[in-house]
Design a protein that fits this description.
Elements: E1 12-17, H1 37-40, H2 42-46, E2 49-53, E3 58-62, E4 79-80, E5 95-96, E6 116-119, E7 155-158, E8 162-171, E9 175-186, H3 190-194, E10 198-204, E11 207-209, E12 212-214, E13 224-226, E14 241-246, E15 263-270, E16 282-293
Antiparallel strand pairs: 1-16, 2-3, 2-8, 3-4, 5-8, 6-7, 8-15, 9-14, 9-16, 10-15, 11-12, 13-14
């Protein structure tokens, strides 16, 4: 079995190839001295927008339909502003929760896996690890493992059995956050095996990640609601699922710092339900987050 590899796709999409995970966003660019462009941009002020960012670049989603004019209808998908002149360099990428470190830097390639080991006593901790002979940091064809005996307690486990990722969001409007799992597999049943990938998510309203303070100029109160019972990627398969609603704008007041007007969305993938009994096979799936007018 191999582990996941995330790639940025159109919209705000993270890609997980073969077995583990990563995703998310925040912007550190030159901003006006009096307020962030979120406060001064015409379309954000008059129609409402959502910004997703990762500490280097950010994407803008508008309630204004640039192609034809007018507003995005209630329940409609917000419009990515592809001509956004405020974007930083590069794509918006996931960050490892609690940092502003790009999550992709720790993801294996398609022909690699997270480091997997053998648990011999059933405690969920690897007792036998492969030798990383090529020093890649991942399990691949350049590694080797000594022979071992099988017993009822023998299991295949990952050194790290979950992946914690985050992205930052600000807005001048209310909106829905959706998620969709798009899967494919070889040797495993696509939807049933997605049920083995647990998913937990939440919002952190205020904090500091690697010196970047966020949330000091965001709205207080219970305006952020979890509206989904999704507990695994299988619950998000087959179409966008509304997982959260933001009943008001996130940004509370003008401020020159976009992070101060942002909250952090956190999600955790768990892989504890996979073991040797599943045999040989690959999982490949995407998790796509998107924004809809509320």
């Amino acid at each position: 079995m191999t582990a996941p590899h995330w790639n940025k796709l159109p919209g705000f999409t993270a890609r997980l190839i073969r077995f583990l995970a990563a995703l998310a966003c925040c912007a550190l660019v030159a901003l006006p001295a009096h307020a962030s462009w979120l406060d001064s941009d015409f379309y954000c002020r008059n129609y409402g927008c959502v910004v997703v960012h990762d500490g280097v670049s950010f994407d803008v989603y508008d309630n204004y339909v640039f192609a034809t004019g007018g507003r995005v209808p209630v329940g409609g998908r917000m419009i990515p502003w592809t001509g956004n002149p405020f974007q930083g360099t590069g794509e918006v990428n996931p960050v490892i929760t609690g940092t502003i470190t790009e999550g992709f830097t720790t993801a294996p390639l398609e022909d690699q896996s997270v480091m997997l080991g053998i648990d011999t006593n059933g405690d969920g901790v690897p007792d036998i690890l492969p030798a990383d002979l090529n020093n890649s940091g991942f399990l691949d064809a350049g590694d080797a493992m000594d022979p071992f005996n099988l017993s009822v307690s023998t299991d295949l486990v990952a050194v790290n059995t979950s992946a914690q990722r985050s992205f930052y969001i600000s807005s001048t409007t209310d909106f829905y956050l959706t998620a969709e799992a798009i899967g494919a597999s070889t040797g495993f049943g696509s939807v049933s095996d997605l049920a083995g990938v647990s998913l937990n998510y939440s919002v952190s309203r205020r904090g500091t990640d690697a010196g970047m303070a966020y949330g000091s100029n965001t709205r207080n109160g219970n305006y952020i609601r979890d509206i989904s019972n999704a507990s695994s990627l299988a619950d998000l398969f087959g179409g966008p699922v509304r997982i959260m609603e933001f009943r008001n704008s996130i940004r509370f007041r003008d401020d020159p710092s976009l992070p101060s007007q942002s909250v952090r969305f956190d999600y955790v993938y768990g892989f504890g339900n996979y073991d040797l009994s599943m045999g040989r096979g690959d999982l490949q799936y995407e998790l796509e987050f998107d924004f809809y007018n509320r």
